Amino acid sequence: MTKQLKLTLVEGAGPASDSGLWNHPDYATNLFKDITYWEDLARTLERAGFDAIFFADTPAIRADTPQARAHALRSGGLPRLDPAYLIPILAAVTERLGFVITSSITYDHPVALARKFTTLDHLTGGRIGWNVVATNVRSAALNHGLTEQLPHDTRYDRGDEFLDVAYQLWNGAWDDDAVVRSPERGIYVDPGKVRAVEHEGEWFRVRGVPISEPSPQRTPVLFQAGSSDRGRQFAATHAEAIYLNANTVAETAFLVSDVRARAAALGRDPAALKFLPRIIPVVGATQAEAEAKLEDYVARSNPESAIVTLQQWAGIDLRGRDPEEELDLADLQVKGINSEHAADYLRRSARSGERFTVGDLIRMYAFTGGAGNVVAGTPGQIADTMERWVREADVDGFNIAYMLRRHSIAEFAEQVVPELRRRGLLAPEGAAAGPTLRERLTGAGPQVPEDHPAARSRTRREAPAG
Amino acid sequence: MTDRILLNAVTVNGPTVSPGLWAHPEERAHEYTSLSYWRDLARTLEAARFDAIFFADMLGAYDVYQGSPAPALRQAVQVPLNDPTLLIPAMAAVTEHLGFAVTVSTTYDQPFPVARRLSTLDLLAGGRVGWNVVTSNLPSAARLYGLDRELDADERYDRGDDFMAVAYKLWESSWEDDAVALDQEGNVYAIPDKVHDIDHEGPFFSVPGPHLLDPTPQRTPVLFQAGSSERGRQFAATHAEAVFLNTPTAAATKYIIDDIRERAERLGRDPASVRFFPKLTPIAAATDEEALERYRDFLSYSSTEGIFTLLGAWTGLDFDEAGPERLLAFTEKAQTRGLVEALRRGDADRQWSVDELASLFAFGTSQLSVGGPAAIADAMEQFVQETGADGFNVASIIQPGTIEAFAEHVVPELRRRGRVQAEYAPGTLREKLGEEGPELRADHPGRAIAAGTGAVPA
What we know:
heterodimer; A: alpha/beta; eight-stranded parallel barrel; 16 helices; 39% helix; globular; B: alpha/beta; eight-stranded parallel beta barrel
């Protein structure tokens, strides 16, 4: 039986998206300030069978050096809206589309974050997901009251405790039948079915009754994107869906099997984890047309973007270096500074004999995420590639990125989606689906399954009131 | 002072707008988790030409009465309560003019993300957002957010002043008006030299910036404040462009308005530029007689347990512990002295019985006005004249029933008298409220603080 693909669209709530092509004449640059752009996009995605729209986010300017700061501003890295506030707008014009927003476990407080997601889950009728990130930008730390950035592994340790607190707030305090609204009994909430959270940990101390009643999913669907070693362990523990930014099918297959194995070792059903590698489709009526489009995009890309990306993601400084220079990346080390997956990938590739010049790397990272994400071809070729990733890397769907705002998504929806539907890879338009995002994505119930750590706070819920 | 009476509707993102009334058959507030419920309310308010809707908010459950959150839960008094900020984008999408004022606390959050949130809202709502700046004094919220007890008032307000300094700098001075070049050919979205770090170093916050958004229509949202304690009034005089009042009598209301205007003037502000919105709960109908029937009907649902839950939280006194005579003298408490001060000003020596208080506050502490169109309009005009208030925060007993009745019966009468607007003024919320431009006035202290030339007065 053909496995139906899960599809999300990655967006950013600012002028530029990951492609860096905000300056392209066909890129709808300032539409992010326009409510009707977002409403139209939501409707388009829902018709095209997307499961969710996903907002990437960093809660500060992505720039830890003066050069990176100037580049970020010139290239539309700011302004950036708080994406949570787009969700109510999108939810009001859709019925099935899900919404995934990025929130940091490094700078938010779990009580405030839990209330935000509960509110959104209520307002969307159970269609909210949370992309859990341990933010890796020093400027974010400084702007959120921390004097220095936490070391990489410490961020994840704190993240584990953060999630434990959030799980208790969502699942451990209010029973399903706590809200009775009974004029006969004269009570709205039965206080015997609500209990205080009592958490004393290394990072958080949270005591009391969370003030929001349970939402349809209670816990938002948990997405995660870290692919470093510690990040993969974190994903295997908590994530229900995993975003990948891998460069090749082989690299993706490795990450998928590694995280599934770790999840199994933790007692979770490995098949329940959904893996969504990021791809940037470039569609043409012919292969030549698609390749010509891609050449146009590469030609308009800003090499400074690749240089800044490599500096931030892999700690490699390519400024002013000869494009022909060959790099030795076998001992690349960036632990403790930044996100590690790009460095991990380059190191592994170098150790297996691949050679990269400065020019190779700049071209590979012309669009954030790396060249492996780009799939240029006819609708049939793009569908073939997607099927191959499913077959060879055991992924469950894709996180679709775009080159040109509005333009590229319209192309994908009009040309590739019908091909995917013809092959049975996507449900037909208007097909019924689960009322909540979790049901849509996992086929299970609206709340986390029993083998997920969030369910452990549920057992607490059945313990006698203390 | 203008002749126009400004109108806000006050509500919360929860199922109860008046204690006990959740059980009333016409009450729809339990639909608070539905977007269409809020969008309908926004359309109703805009049709009646309300200036704004104001969302009060709390971060913890009320638990003074009976020393437990159980009474608050039983009567759904401020619990359950969802984040109100998230309602605004959906309500803004179906309206053109209605303003949105929302409570966000300065006590547990960081100013940098709060400034981003409010700028996002001001952008999405096209310059129609106000921020009700509060400091949180609930012990239950303090425990949820990791403290043993609430901060004392001075520390809360000192933190609030530093929080405001950061916010002003991010909003007013981080991005120049022409920082966004949007030059696609030249490959320059924003000009780096026109986007400034703020490098704020204060007693509570160190924030380098830059702000995450380019200037929104108002830059700084319209600043509301609601504290009526002595320190709260100084805070309001410094920062507020509009003040919400929840005082039980005209005399108490006038005292606070005069006091804050005097303080604002001493800070170099035009005292008339601080607008005051006392709370008013109207029970309106076609005739006085029908309104009285309505009142009796509502009163039969009013919950004493719910009232004591509110009063306990507002005064810090557990009314369950009142003595056998059920009489009560207000004692000094560190928290929430506003209400206590107001009652004292009425009669310093009066001993209140618990039952008297329950009946006085059957629908909360606000002014109750019951009657047909003329009676309520008369009462509003008289109250404005006696107190110097600029308008009202219209509170509901049932939602949207109270607002619908007010819109149907009282708004046309006030319009006939020329006291409320028939059409909205153009522009942002700040302009609609009567200011000349979309941004903070030149005499507002936030301007000087943002420019680094003004200190926040203690």
